[in-house]
């Protein structure tokens, strides 16, 4: 990866003109065992990405000490992305009902180019010494082109006298896995307008109330890893290619209280999503990016920090989250779930994956001087979460129970933090915490729909580390 940023400031009277020029370039190559088992099924899957981004921003800012202060600017970004994906079906398949897949591969090539230009402005006006209002907006125009081609190739060990020829048996077997040779390209051009408004009122020097509205958007694009055309009539679950932009409207009210010893923040929010972009697994090998139509989240968040004395500080945070899909008729069914919309299951009215109702943390920090130039420190911390579903298809078999994860840190270092030695313990109670989960690729295919297997990624178990920091 290569990343470079050039910042330049020019004083224009009391105003400041700022230029930010950026360049990013990265390349990725990886070989993956994507079947997640010890069997040699799909062990030679090779993927690559080649990405380049150039950006330029110009903005002007007012002095900042007047009743009305503002910032405005323009931003341009150009990106290019190339992706290759080689999925190798190993000779193991000779011993399965999918004999025709042995020593075959599907090779995918994807490319994308985009140009984005944005114009933005934000201004804050102090109506009184205690009351402020902020208004702002950002206009985006983005154009993209994308193309994806997938070819099915046979290796020297594949069945048949002429490996270069793809016979109907091979084609039919791939179609049973929702894979079809294809080529597709497209263009999109999108405009978005994202306004914001905020009002703040200082009740006292220590207490402030606020209310805000903000709209955010995420541009549409093209599905990189779809295995068939969205218009296909010869596979069970057609693939995807083009998806639209996503929009979120957020309303928030809250208060902020801060003194020398105590700080408290409380907020309540409600966010409504339109055309939410979602990655849907087809139950075999494909992940299709689509717009889930609608969702809403709402909740309350609170955090506090209390300096009990010069040696001990206590902090805590808690969040309540309510999530509901308001319109998502084409979700993936989990194992043995009966479809209610063709081959799909409706998620409307259901909670999304990885959205615990309650979460938060507690922290206690103690520090004390030792002698004239050393400092001793102790930290105890706990993270907690209520239960949640870990699989994107909302399979209840991937339910993660609520947990409390305990950590600690004991340190000794220089009084000015020039160096520190610390013993750090994480997940001391050895909680088994599922971060994400899903069905194994091909699991129901090999069992003919009579069985299922799962894979999951878990948080680290109990681990102890010795840490040394030095500043120079």
Automatic annotation (TrEMBL):
Keyword terms, alphabetized: Cell outer membrane, Ion transport, Iron, Iron transport, Membrane, Receptor, TonB box, Transmembrane, Transmembrane beta strand, Transport
Pfam families in alphabetical order: TonB_dep_Rec_b-barrel (PF00593)
Subcellular location: Cell outer membrane
Keyword Coiled coil applies: no
Topology of this chain in the membrane: Multi-pass membrane protein
Organism superkingdom: Bacteria
InterPro entries assigned to the protein according to its UniProt record, in alphabetical order: Beta-barrel_TonB, Beta-barrel_TonB_sf, TonB-dep_rcpt-like
Domain TonB-dependent receptor-like beta-barrel positions: 6-428
Presence of the UniProt keyword Phosphoprotein in the record: no
Family per similarity comment: Belongs to the TonB-dependent receptor family.
PANTHER family xref list: FERRICHROME IRON RECEPTOR-RELATED, TONB-DEPENDENT OUTER MEMBRANE RECEPTOR
Name under which the protein is recorded: TonB-dependent receptor
